[in-house]
Structure to design on (360 residues):
């Protein structure tokens, strides 16, 4: 079927159009709690310039953001705040877990630190590093753009399939065994 | 026992509490004194009356399984100084299980408010007379005292029942 289109007319899918618009205008929510936050600031500044990827509009209210960058360790006391901020962000939204601490707890394997935010909120991309270089964060932004382009839908219906938690269960048997062993090392005095 | 003729804190204390036999020890430039717990408040009140107008630190030590430690388990350490003369004194006192408790010095220095809350939070030492003895660093629902030496690295007293938010429901 031959259709004569003028040269400035393009036929595409609605999903693709929405994805094209969204991927080049990600608005990050900088949830920066530690040294990763410094690298996040460096990424936003002129040498690395996150604006080249259309993600320079950092907003400090979750209601205007669609990309949460969790940069740094999250303590147990902060976790309800993190979850509330995530829930306050409008759809569609994505989450980058930046650095070893946000992804796994890092060196802070203690009572106070969440051992990976993916146990409690959904995460799309993990960035390794302690802290990661700004280039690594930019690579993650590019990955998110790729993910938006490939999986995005205009009414965000692709998220409905993700009914499983991203990370390990907070009550994994391995961890319970480890906790029990740690408790047995010292006598419980009081 | 070393003597230190500079300053007014130590002579005033030795004059006010002759029965305690208060001894000053020196470590580098730290001037330290051990005081029995039941006389702590009187000693601190005397210190304030002779010019120690600034309480710069309260902290604690858990001597459980500490090599060469005495019979007492917890030491609570108070640091006071005078903003007029710059004179400093570190006062140490010992408390023990099962119910480590000390009088609060909040009435003398308002700065003791959060410092005592922190000691309570980390070591479980209660301060009698503190106006608002809650946890200050750990979450309110935390049920243990993490800086005690019998606390494991993790796994006691934390809250684990946070909701797990999946992508479909957020």
């Amino acid at each position: 079927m031959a259709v004569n289109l003028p040269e400035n007319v393009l036929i595409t899918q609605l999903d693709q159009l929405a994805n094209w618009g969204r991927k080049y205008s990600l608005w990050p929510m900088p949830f920066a709690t530690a040294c990763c936050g410094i690298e996040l600031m460096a990424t936003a500044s002129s040498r690395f310039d996150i604006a080249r990827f259309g993600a320079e509009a950092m907003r400090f209210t979750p209601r205007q953001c669609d990309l949460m960058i969790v940069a740094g360790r999250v303590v147990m006391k902060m976790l309800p705040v993190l979850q509330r901020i995530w829930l306050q962000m409008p759809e569609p939204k994505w989450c980058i877990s930046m650095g070893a601490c946000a992804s796994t707890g890092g060196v802070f394997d203690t009572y106070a630190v969440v051992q990976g935010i993916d146990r409690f909120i959904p995460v799309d991309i993990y960035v390794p590093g302690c802290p990661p270089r700004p280039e690594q964060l930019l690579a993650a932004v590019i990955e998110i753009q790729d993910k938006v382009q490939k999986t995005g839908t205009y009414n965000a219906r692709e998220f409905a399939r993700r009914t499983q938690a991203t990370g390990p269960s907070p009550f994994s048997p391995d961890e319970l065994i480890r906790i029990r062993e740690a408790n047995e090392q010292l006598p419980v005095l009081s | 026992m070393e003597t230190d003729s500079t300053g007014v804190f130590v002579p005033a204390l030795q004059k006010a509490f002759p029965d305690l036999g208060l001894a000053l020890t020196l470590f580098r430039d730290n001037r330290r004194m051990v005081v029995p717990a039941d006389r702590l408040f009187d000693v601190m009140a005397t210190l304030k009356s002779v010019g120690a107008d600034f309480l710069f630190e309260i902290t604690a030590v858990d001597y459980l399984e500490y090599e060469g430690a005495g019979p007492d388990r917890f030491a609570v350490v108070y640091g006071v100084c005078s903003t007029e003369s710059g004179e400093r004194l570190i006062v140490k006192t010992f408390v023990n299980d099962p119910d480590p408790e000390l009088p609060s010095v909040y009435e003398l220095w308002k700065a003791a408010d959060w410092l005592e809350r922190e000691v309570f939070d980390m070591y479980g030492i209660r301060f009698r007379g503190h106006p608002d003895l809650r946890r200050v660093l750990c979450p309110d629902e935390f049920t243990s005292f993490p800086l005690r030496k019998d606390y494991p690295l993790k796994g006691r007293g934390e809250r684990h029942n946070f909701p797990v938010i999946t992508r479909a429901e957020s």
About this structure: The interface with chain B takes residues 76-77, 79-80, 83, 86-87, 109-112, 119-122, 159-166, 169-171, 178-180, 182-183, 185-190 of chain A (CB under 8 Å). The beta strands of chain A are 28-32, 67-71, 94-98, 125-127. The radius of gyration of chain A is 20 Å.
